[in-house]
Design a protein that fits this description.
By secondary structure, the protein is of the alpha/beta class. About 25% of the residues lie in helices and about 30% in strands. Bound molecules: S-adenosyl-L-homocysteine.
């Protein structure tokens, strides 16, 4: 039996889903944040469950050769990154294994996983930030908690972010604007959102407030604009709910336009506050190029792009096929997608608002179906519909290997087989990994 508060010597023999080290003591799996595969550590047990436990490093007895010093001073407190304490190759290996392990363990799929496509930049790569604001300041939540760790800089964010955070802090201080207090559901500002176009430099700032009240708005706009001349859009998002969801339903345009424009390859995209847009544009191009590479287009296909966001994949592949239909649940994103088709002169793409699982049935037939769902994966109802549509190929773009594996299990039990699995590092320093999977129909 493992005892809380006792110390043990532990060999780290695996890595967990959040990038923590895992070892075994007396049949217990012990999860230890910041421990690395191959290390021998002295661990203090902090929590014991039925057949697993959590530990804290007391001493690293044999460090991994991949261990390095974190360059970010917030690393051990902030829950944003998991890999600042190992070299990049270690992280890439971890991510590739995460994909193949999930496919095997959850999906029962023994597919060969291609080498992971590495990121060119492991710092400053994010184009979007979403900082919670509360009585402790503006920052990030610590891992698995709602304890806010104030940060004045974040290495993986675009460099413009820090000045914007500073400007908003200044405004709040000067005009006694209250931060949100989750416990009492009082206060004014709940979140600060930024999104920057790496292509045009345009910046959107979103201020999420609890009520529509926001004092001295003109001053807020002035302070923000003085802080960065690339700001082209300042939007107030009102979120009165007791919820973890950051953005509210209602929006007020405080200044400028309600979108920014970015480019992926030759295509331009207008992006609204509420629309999903990949956070690492450099890697997004590689992701979409991989999608194109995997499919053998004849030029005659009908293609469904389900979970299409602002139509990025749809429009990227439109020139290779006869017709594309994109489906997306967020109305604003579909408005963006329709406009994006227009500004890029693309006429063979159409977009439908709705839940993919409800809408797909009514779309007719397709030769290729691309799905790119959020972390929770596809609804089984949608997977059944896709099997009924019976496209020759399915391309599954996933940001979560566990739900990917679950969904592939369904598809491989229903007339499809996995042809190729390509992981891509879109989120350096974090435990997250993106993946593209090509599937074909077995009778093809
Ligand atoms: N393919 C796009 C977006 C992928 S993110 C890109 O590469 O940018 C997933 C998208 O699915 C988001 O835009 C989200 O709003 C949308 N979404 C979430 N649930 C959905 C559902 N049930 N049906 C359709 N779209 C959904």
């Amino acid at each position: 039996m493992l005892n809380k508060n006792e110390q043990y010597i532990l060999e780290i023999s695996g890595m967990g889903a959040e990038g923590e080290g895992v070892g075994r003591i007396e049949g217990f799996a012990v999860f230890v944040p910041f421990a690395l595969l191959g290390e021998k550590i002295l661990v203090k047990i902090v929590k014991v469950q039925k057949n697993y436990a959590f530990g804290k490093i007391v001493e690293i007895i044999t460090p991994s050769p991949s261990r390095i010093s974190p360059s970010c001073k917030h690393f051990y407190k902030c829950g944003g990154c998991s890999f600042q304490h190992c070299d990049y190759n270690f992280e890439l290996e971890y991510k590739k294994n995460k994909v193949s392990e999930a496919l095997k363990r959850i999906g029962g799929i023994e597919a060969e996983v291609s080498p992971i496509i590495p990121a060119e930049n492991t710092v400053g790569y994010r184009n979007k930030s979403q900082f919670p604001v509360n009585t402790d300041g503006i920052g990030f939540y610590a891992n698995r908690s709602h304890r806010l760790v104030p940060v004045e800089s974040c290495e993986i964010q675009h460099t413009s972010t820090h000045g914007i955070i500073k400007a908003i802090s200044e405004y709040m201080k000067k005009y006694s604007i209250l931060p949100y207090d989750e416990a009492s559901h009082t206060g004014d500002i709940r979140h600060v959102f930024t999104r920057v176009s790496k292509h045009s430099g345009e910046i959107m700032v979103g201020i999420v407030t609890r009520t529509k009240r926001l004092a001295n708005v003109d001053e807020l706009v002035r302070i923000l604009r003085d802080s960065n001349e690339n700001i082209v859009s300042i939007i107030q998002s009102i979120n009165s709910e007791k919820t973890n969801v950051a953005l509210g339903e209602k929006e007020v345009l405080l200044w400028g336009k309600d979108y920014i424009t970015d480019k992926i390859g030759d295509l331009s995209f207008e992006i609204s506050l509420k629309s999903f847009y990949q956070i690492n544009p450099q890697q997004t191009k590689k992701l979409y190029d991989e999608v194109v590479k995997l499919i053998n287009f004849t030029g005659d296909e009908t293609l469904f792009d389900l979970y299409c966001g602002i139509g990025t994949i749809s429009l990227y592949v439109a020139k290779y096929v006869k017709k594309v239909i994109g489906v997306e649940i967020v109305e604003k994103a579909v408005e963006n997608a329709i406009k994006n088709a227009k500004i890029n002169g693309i006429e063979n793409a159409q977009f439908v608002v709705g839940a993919a699982e409800d809408v797909a049935k009514s779309l007719g037939t397709a030769d290729i179906v691309i799905v790119d769902p959020p972390r929770k994966g596809c609804d089984e109802k949608l997977l059944k519909t896709i099997v009924d549509i019976a496209p020759e190929s399915i391309v599954y773009v996933s940001c979560n290997p566990s739900t990917l594996a679950r969904d592939l299990k369904f598809l491989t039990s229903n007339k499809y087989y996995v042809k190729k699995v390509v992981p891509i590092d879109m989120f350096p320093r974090t435990p997250h990994v993106e993946c593209v999977v090509l599937m074909s129909r077995v009778d093809k």
